[in-house]
Automatic annotation (TrEMBL):
GO terms assigned for molecular function: exonuclease activity; metal ion binding
Taxonomic source organism: Oceanospirillum sediminis
Record keywords: Cytoplasm, Exonuclease, Hydrolase, Magnesium, Metal-binding, Nuclease
Gene3D superfamilies per record: Metal-dependent hydrolases
Amino-acid positions noted as binding a divalent metal cation 1 in the UniProt annotation, renumbered to this chain: 107, 219
Stored Pfam families: TatD_DNase
Entry protein name: TatD family hydrolase
Amino acids binding a divalent metal cation 2: 143, 168
Coiled-coil region(s): none
Origin superkingdom: Bacteria
Entry keyword Magnesium: yes
PANTHER family: DEOXYRIBONUCLEASE TATDN1, TATD FAMILY DEOXYRIBONUCLEASE
């Protein structure tokens, strides 16, 4: 991967899938198309847009229609928004889940860190979304913060009925990592792992994730990777910055970025049941000579 001089972009060594992009965020209001096109030409050819509420999931669905070869979305209600989860929500989510571009239920889970919704509201919204995932046969895109015990218990109870699930933006400790892996879940790693202040524990843990359970994500516009040589002035993370996360993870595993790129891409395609990818010549041309570039960095 090369960092072009004076630029903060690294070319991906192989097409990548960013499994968590909050592309409907108002921080992208004036540049959404540019952000998508920049990502695709940096080799991030597939992005899964995170649905955090019915409204955001609907907006994500609309955006996916514009870029059917590059974008898919999840439909769900984030634990912060669980207080808005009402009687009409399951039906609205189910309608979204029926769309071909909808590849998972979520972002759902428990967040006892900030408790924007009460724990009771979070648990009942989470349970309803687990049931919806079971009913629709879709995998789950999960969030968890300071709620490992309860979330693990709920997932263990339903695990044999659930197709698959990924703990997105994993930032927990060894116990929670192994607890989730024991339930045969996937783990999503963000730029948290690039953070030299609060990501060190994760840096040491990450190699424990079996390569067939690892996926990567930017969680853009949040969590700008702190290993970037030149950070953008606006501090806004973009899906095009995903290779920086790949670079950090390859150092943690002491494995080639190319191998991790391939594995995470394959895992994402399998997990989200994405169609086979046909790269156009333009994209193919841009993803060039990856291995040697990577070592020049
Ligand atoms: Zn999250």
């Amino acid at each position: 991967m090369t960092a072009t001089e004076g630029n903060n972009l690294l070319q991906a060594p192989e097409p990548l899938t960013d499994i968590g992009v909050n592309l409907t965020s108002n921080r992208f209001d004036n540049c959404r198309n540019e952000i998508i096109e920049q990502a695709v030409s940096s080799g991030i050819t597939r992005m899964i847009l995170t649905g955090t509420s019915v409204k955001e999931s609907e907006a994500a669905s609309t955006l996916c229609q514009q870029y059917p070869e590059n974008l898919w979305f999840t439909a769900g209600v984030h634990p912060h928004d669980a207080s808005q989860f009402d009687k009409s929500t399951p039906a609205a989510l189910k309608d979204l889940a029926m769309e071909t571009a909808c590849v998972a239920i979520g972002e759902a889970g428990l967040d006892f860190n900030r408790n924007f919704s009460t724990s009771e509201q979070q648990i009942s919204a989470f349970e309803a979304q687990i049931e919806l995932a079971i009913e629709t046969g879709k995998p789950m895109f999960l969030h968890e913060r300071e709620a490992f015990e309860r979330q693990h218990e709920m997932l263990r109870y339903y695990r044999d009925q659930l197709k698959d699930a990924v703990i997105h933006c994993f930032t927990g400790d060894k116990k929670s990592l192994f607890g989730y892996l024991d339930l045969d879940l996937y783990i999503g790693i963000t730029g948290w792992v690039c953070d030299e202040r609060r990501g060190t524990e994760l840096q040491e843990l990450v190699h424990n994730i079996p390569l067939d359970r690892l996926m990567i994500e930017t969680d853009a516009p949040y969590l700008l990777p702190r290993n970037m040589t030149k950070k953008p002035k606006d501090r806004t993370n973009r899906p095009a910055f995903l290779p920086w996360i790949l670079l950090q993870i390859s150092q943690c595993y002491q494995k080639e970025a190319l191998e991790l790129a391939r594995r995470t891409r394959e895992n994402s395609a399998y997990f989200f049941n994405l169609p086979p990818e046909s790269l156009n010549d333009q994209t193919k041309e841009k993803i060039h000579d990856p291995v040697s570039d990577f070592y020049r960095l």
